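Predict the assembly for these two chains.
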Amino acid sequence: MKEAVRIIKIGGKVIDDQVKLNQFLSDFAEIEGPKILVHGGGKIASHVASKLGIETKMVDGRRITDPEMLDVVAMVYGGLVNKRIVAKLLALGVNALGLSGTDLNVIYSKKRNPNPTDFGLVGDIESVNGPVLIDLLAKGITPVLAPLTHDGNGQLLNTNADNIAGYVAMELATEAKLELDFCFDLEGVMNEGKLITQMNLLLYRHLKGVGVIKDGMIPKLDLGFQALKAGVKSVRVVGNEFVKEAQKGTRLIK
Amino acid sequence: MKEAVRIIKIGGKVIDDQVKLNQFLSDFAEIEGPKILVHGGGKIASHVASKLGIETKMVDGRRITDPEMLDVVAMVYGGLVNKRIVAKLLALGVNALGLSGTDLNVIYSKKRNPNPTDFGLVGDIESVNGPVLIDLLAKGITPVLAPLTHDGNGQLLNTNADNIAGYVAMELATEAKLELDFCFDLEGVMNEGKLITQMNLLLYRHLKGVGVIKDGMIPKLDLGFQALKAGVKSVRVVGNEFVKEAQKGTRLIK
């Protein structure tokens, strides 16, 4: 594929805020060329689970996906959020196709090893079906990926949306020039309220060492640097509202 | 498309029964040639709505789709049921792709006229995207259609699954030999406990007139005869468990 492919992960509170979501999708629709949108489920899944009386079980601050919670995740991520986004993108002139990793076998994963911690029905990505995605993109179709994968034996698995974006980018990097954006609520990676515009491994390790970079930002940046190493041309952590603006956010460099 | 295309609507309690659903999908997987599966949501949507504290509003014995119920329908039909079926079909070797009518603009509909009865966010099908479906089928892909459509302005609409099966069959009938099966819990159309193996318009009108055929069977058969007239080669009402057996059920004839 000759054109650059953009993989954009939308994250944070924007999924739960109709006005902000509409603005994001309108910006996304204006981005030209082949592109893939990856979304999570925001707080809606926890909200629905709580209303359904399903207890959210946590270990070490991370949610366990038991069978009931998996049903909620399939409903909210695969159904509500995915189809809402697709309907809005179509209205904006984007030929969108909502996909979970199970559709067309797009993403195959393996249930995470229950040792030392059993996170339940959570999938670690094993492979991404590059040819199918390239074929869709070549036809002008915009895949909208929900964070659900499958194990090949009929079992759906809850899968981190950052990982989906990262692994898809790495797989497609062998076929095209890939640009990966992790969008979220902040402007980028911050220190003392200031945006860090460029980040290399040395700076990352330093800021992680002193505790400035922590929690969910660590796996996101680990994955970002892994993607750079695997041939993804551009990796960025950026505010949802700046998705169209190439100069914004924190750019990862080698 | 040279090969006959089968459109199979799965319905009734089988959606709610994992054992029966697995058997159905296993039979479906064995059917050769291009095929499309259309599903409803069974009783799960009502169950989830009730657990979420959403009141089911009825008018003339029919459910009203208010915005809250639409969210449930999107979650249950578009997410839970659709993705479960797709994951199982993939495990059975079927290259399945879950679609709502909004994905790739497959089915465009119009919100039903609120006069005389306002059913809420319910869509009446306006058009089916034949070329997209034919293209998928030609690639060996099996679309799995959830009963959700969209109005082109970003609004999802709840849409009867029988209608989706019927309209898709009629649209594709201009391109291929079409066989349409409405599967459900009974063996076929019954009278006094006996299966009616063949039904033409005269017999249908007679049995409707004397009250043997009633309720939900009326729109199903109206649609079936409409499909026959529109060029669909074979229309059948048949038990879910007999989907593989060509001689079973009630066959509609001109």
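The domain at 5-185 of chain B is CATH 3.40.1160.10 (Carbamate kinase). The radius of gyration of chain B is 17 Å.
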